[in-house]
Amino acid sequence: MARPINEEKRQERRSRILEEAVVLFAENGYSNTTTALIAQGVGVTPGTIFQYFPSKEALFYAAVLEPLADIQAKSLACLKQEGTPSELIKNMVEEQFNHIYCYTNELRLVQYVLGQRIRFPELTQKVLESTKVMTDTIECVYAKGQLMGEFNKSFSPAMISRAYISLLNGVGLTLGKNIIHHPEWGNLKEHALYLFAPTQPKEKAREFE
Amino acid sequence: MARPINEEKRQERRSRILEEAVVLFAENGYSNTTTALIAQGVGVTPGTIFQYFPSKEALFYAAVLEPLADIQAKSLACLKQEGTPSELIKNMVEEQFNHIYCYTNELRLVQYVLGQRIRFPELTQKVLESTKVMTDTIECVYAKGQLMGEFNKSFSPAMISRAYISLLNGVGLTLGKNIIHHPEWGNLKEHALYLFAPTQPKEKAREFE
Amino acid sequence: MARPINEEKRQERRSRILEEAVVLFAENGYSNTTTALIAQGVGVTPGTIFQYFPSKEALFYAAVLEPLADIQAKSLACLKQEGTPSELIKNMVEEQFNHIYCYTNELRLVQYVLGQRIRFPELTQKVLESTKVMTDTIECVYAKGQLMGEFNKSFSPAMISRAYISLLNGVGLTLGKNIIHHPEWGNLKEHALYLFAPTQPKEKAREFE
Amino acid sequence: MARPINEEKRQERRSRILEEAVVLFAENGYSNTTTALIAQGVGVTPGTIFQYFPSKEALFYAAVLEPLADIQAKSLACLKQEGTPSELIKNMVEEQFNHIYCYTNELRLVQYVLGQRIRFPELTQKVLESTKVMTDTIECVYAKGQLMGEFNKSFSPAMISRAYISLLNGVGLTLGKNIIHHPEWGNLKEHALYLFAPTQPKEKAREFE
DNA sequence: TATGAATGAGTGTTCATTCAT
DNA sequence: GATGAATGAACACTCATTCAT
Lengths: 209, 209, 209, 209
Hints:
The structure is a homotetramer.
Chain A: H1 2-28, H2 35-42, H3 46-52, H4 56-79, H5 85-102, H6 104-115, H7 121-147, H8 157-174, H9 185-194, H10 202-208
The structure holds a DNA duplex.
């Protein structure tokens, strides 16, 4: 009987540690983040960390992969709802550009890993696999959209999905904390959609002309 | 009395150290790169590094900023040649997408810094200043191009330049060593140009249809 | 939860480190004393030192100032007891000449600092402040003694206190480990008292004549 | 023919190095003084030092012993002039108290060595031998003075000479750069003489009463 | 289960000394 | 003779990890 409650507490504390780890690893990098600092942020003593994660490395892995899985799941969910391909893509772009804001640190961490592939080969591998699922799904939806005449047929779906993911990553990287409040933020999001070359962005386009 | 011009030799060795530093910092991050490793890579003993750079930090600064200045200079040169705005932009895109390949490590290093702004505030500042010069110049050329009817007038130049820089960064980040040989590489480069919404990509577009 | 009172153990170990540091700093100087050597002397590993003192410099400061405070307190106590000024001075001289023996290293350390004022400006400052309290008190007691006719009125108290402190320091410096067993030790101590020019050292003086 | 001139230049430069070394060793201690700093002070390059002294240690030895020999010679000369013992002693005190001012650094260096006997056993040995010559001579003169009735016969010459040397050392140590301008400086010098317990300081003493 | 003191290998940096020029 | 770049051993300090309490 006592167990379930304890188990709950354990999970809660584990989450707190992970949360703190994400922030600190993202801000300071792996080596420059001490386990003691993470512990301090969580409000526990240095030894405690090692009761939840076998090593600093394991904690880092979890800090990178667990949030990524969450984010991917949400993004994929957008593409698996009901709706025309162009609607799905639009929803996904919307969702992901919001992620950039909500999950800044989580995404930075992923980029941090991708930037140092040789250093973190195993993690890079997993992150790329996860990204591949994403691009594959986008490609699939996009190709369907092309067939339905919703997207310009002259572009290769593989290229389009890569270009979009690149833009998404680049936006997170180049823009600072206050992206959302940037005057160009809304336009940038729309331009991400433009990248997909939808066939009728006419109504929109006219407004500006 | 005074030794002749070994100033030349000094510069040469300094460059060798910087070069090695760029590679190792980019691959392993700041803390995980030991000065001894850099020295070893160059083929000198640990102490020698400090005859050329006062500290590891100073070496890192130089490794980030000096190549960046080079790259920026080359990119800006493209935009200041003779030609119509659309030609200039096209040249720049061409030039920069090649940079991604030649200067992989140099660019990764810049992204590494931007990913950890709190950790490297001074460097971030300088990198952003450097980037601003770039985006400002692009904006300027782009606006001129819009007036001349070469680009779609419905997009804000500020947004366009940001979107392009983001894409550029994202491409460097998401794609691996062998980008150039990737089947989609050529298409991706063209799509970067498409992002600028030129008004006559017609001839091209037709080919694929 | 919180461990009980190992505060006691901490203090004990801190004292052991300080003690060892005093000995080694006094014998070898600051730079030539490695923290590893101190650790070894205490019987702990190098890292442990830094759990008790934030830096080698801080340890040095403590090694200089803490014992000095102790010694000063004991000396001042002599001058604040009941008794005529000449009795107080006599007690103090007695007490301090014994200190030279017991606290050889502690005093050497103080002299080491005073000898390198430019190198240790902050410490010098504090040591001089501490010394000033001592000379001021001696002056005060001495002046009272002069008024009561116990000391020769022709000498300035400020000069006398300085001369005494100088002699005391010089004795510590010039004489070696085995001062106490030196045949002139007893006489030297008495001569320190003679320096104060008491008006009735007659009985004593006669003995020798 | 060319040789003598070069030899002269060599000696001059050697002296300059030694001079600079005395100042820096006295101010910063042995380990904290780099040979490069000495070289810089002299205005030569690091390697040059080693053309005049085989090692840093040898330079230190010379910096301690050579000036000491000078000072001792001058002091001893005072005691070997014509005159009554009390006159000789008086001259010597005068001479030495001036040394404290002129040779601050040279004397500090000697005290620095004496404070770290275990670290510099050989040097300590030589310094003590040199000091012994001094105290022995003083004892000798003092004893003669006692026989002639110039000094109080109740004090042991051995003790008196030690007390004086101690005071001398202590004065150099406790007082700062501006001793000479200190209001008590003159009185202090006189009190050093008082320490010898001359039999007719009466005229002086009366003045103050 | 949490604690937090101890560990000890690892890193940036310094510096006396050498030696080719 | 003077130079000054290179050397490489040494040291202060850090930090992931352990373990007795």
